[in-house]
């Protein structure tokens, strides 16, 4: 009960702060009352997520919603006996020694990966974040849910603010397409990497695209740097999938010209960088690292006997191996959740989300606007990110349940790509996500 009361108090405090901060309270097309409703809805969804992994899937050691929270207690407890150790661990300064491994990290269950490689372990970020949140939560889990939902809501508001000026008359559709995908509402509302990733993604996008034209450009720089830093230490591959399309978009905004040609040139250069990455940075051959990542993911999934495991074609560290597996990768990311119907309510929700995903292009084509009115550079940017991340996930993730979580960053961009093609004037007036003035 004390934890619930404390969570309610923090919820009220965040709602009060949102009303006082223009970033939340003065969003054209998104009234503050809806921001508040969406924030509370996310907290409820995060509480349902906690309940699912408390009363249905009861193995706490394998539940991601508890992994980082439980391990953070080991780090946090050092604050009382050896506060300097706590500071070194949360700041990652001077903590890479046998002493810390023996007394702290070896006691945790998720600091040291079973399949270790030279890629940064993003679990460290989540354990550190939870260890810092314990200063405010006093060890009550539901408080961490409230903080995670605030971070995620902030990121989603940032995404909405980024794209709303491009989608006049479709703000309600954008709100639904950013906030209300089932996976976004469920998985990005818990004490998981997805909540922090969405926070970083929203800040990065509004900084790189939504704010540069405003007078206070320092805000754009600050948002971009914070968002970029978070994405680098949570899921850096999402950032790398964003960059080719973003560079092409910003290039076109600065100099104009043929958007398709510029996008093709940037992506061709990106492919060359990937193929030559081993020569540029010895030990970081991207194709080899991805093949190793797939191997490790398959090994981990088979060791725990994952119920939604799907055998993937084995990757070799050469370009042709990746190219020939692209169709299968797209199938895995965009269609394989239909195969999870036998996995209970979570599988049904994933399949229902896939129906919405497949309806998106149909609606876009049915109510399409003239091609001359389409924002082609922005559409190409969205499609670039969708395809690159979908291919990367589909090549390396053999578990449908994990794949549904990993593709969460794609969902708002699928919505934006759909809405960029839609003519608001052609939509039936009974549709609830249209808003005409």
Q: Which regions are unreliable across 5 or more consecutive residues at pLDDT < 50?
A: none
The radius of gyration over CA amounts to 22 Å
Quaternary structure classification: single chain
**How many strands appear in the DSSP assignment?**
0
Total DSSP helices: 22
Into which percent range does the helicity of residues fall?
over 70%
Termini separation comes to 47 Å
Output mean pLDDT: 88
**Biggest pleated sheet:** none
Order of helices and strands: HHHHHHHHHHHHHHHHHHHHHH
Q: Based on helices, strands and strand pairing, what is the structural class? A: mainly alpha
Percent in strands: under 5%
Shape: globular
Descriptive labels:
single chain; 22 helices; 437 residues; mainly alpha
Describe this structure in words.
By secondary structure, this protein is mainly alpha-helical. The chain is built from 22 helices and no strands. It has helices at 2-20, 22-25, 32-56, 64-81, 83-91, 98-105, 123-137, 141-163, 171-179, 182-187, 193-210, 217-234, 236-255, 259-275, 277-280, 286-303, 319-324, 326-334, 345-366, 376-396, 400-406, 410-421. α8 (141-163) packs antiparallel against α9 and α13 (236-255) runs antiparallel to α20. The chain is globular and about 65 Å long. The model has no long low-confidence stretch (mean pLDDT 88).
């Amino acid at each position: 009960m004390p934890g619930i009361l404390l969570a309610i108090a923090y919820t009220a405090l965040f709602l009060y702060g949102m009303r006082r901060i223009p970033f939340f309270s003065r969003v054209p097309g998104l009234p503050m009352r809806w921001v508040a409703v969406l924030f509370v809805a996310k907290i409820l969804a995060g509480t349902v997520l906690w309940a699912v992994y408390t009363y249905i899937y009861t193995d706490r050691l394998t539940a991601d919603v508890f992994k980082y929270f439980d391990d953070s207690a080991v780090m946090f407890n050092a604050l009382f006996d050896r506060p300097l150790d706590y500071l070194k661990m949360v700041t990652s300064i001077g903590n890479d020694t046998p002493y810390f491994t023996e007394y702290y990290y070896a006691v945790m269950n998720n600091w040291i990966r079973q399949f270790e490689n030279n890629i940064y372990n993003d679990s460290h970020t989540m354990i550190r974040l939870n260890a810092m949140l314990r200063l405010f939560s006093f060890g009550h889990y539901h408080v961490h849910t409230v903080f995670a939902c605030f971070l995620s809501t902030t990121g989603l508001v940032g995404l909405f603010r980024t794209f709303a000026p491009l989608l006049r008359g479709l703000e309600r559709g954008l709100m639904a397409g950013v906030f209300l995908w089932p996976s976004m509402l469920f998985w990005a509302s818990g004490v998981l990497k997805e909540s922090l990733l969405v926070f970083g993604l929203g800040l990065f996008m509004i900084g790189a695209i939504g704010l540069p034209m405003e007078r206070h450009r320092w805000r754009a720089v600050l948002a971009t740097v914070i968002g970029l830093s978070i994405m680098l230490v949570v899921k850096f591959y999402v950032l790398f999938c964003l960059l080719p399309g973003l560079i092409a978009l910003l290039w076109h905004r600065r100099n104009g010209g043929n958007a398709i040609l510029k996008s093709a040139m940037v992506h061709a250069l990106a492919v060359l960088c990937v193929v030559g990455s081993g020569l540029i940075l010895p030990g970081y051959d991207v194709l080899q690292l991805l093949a190793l990542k797939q191997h490790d993911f398959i090994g981990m999934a088979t060791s725990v006997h994952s119920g939604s495991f799907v055998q993937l074609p084995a990757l070799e560290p050469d370009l042709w191996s990746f190219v020939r597996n692209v169709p299968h990768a797209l199938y895995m990311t965009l269609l394989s959740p239909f195969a999870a119907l036998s996995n209970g309510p979570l599988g049904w929700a994933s399949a229902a989300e896939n129906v919405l995903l497949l309806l998106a292009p149909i609606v876009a084509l049915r109510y399409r606007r003239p091609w001359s009115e389409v924002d082609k550079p922005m559409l190409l940017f969205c499609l670039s990110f969708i395809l690159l991340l979908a291919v990367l996930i589909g090549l390396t993730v053999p578990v449908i349940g994990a794949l549904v979580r990993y593709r969460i960053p794609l969902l708002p961009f699928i919505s934006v790509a759909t809405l960029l093609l839609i003519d608001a004037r052609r939509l039936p007036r009974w549709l609830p996500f249209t808003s005409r003035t």
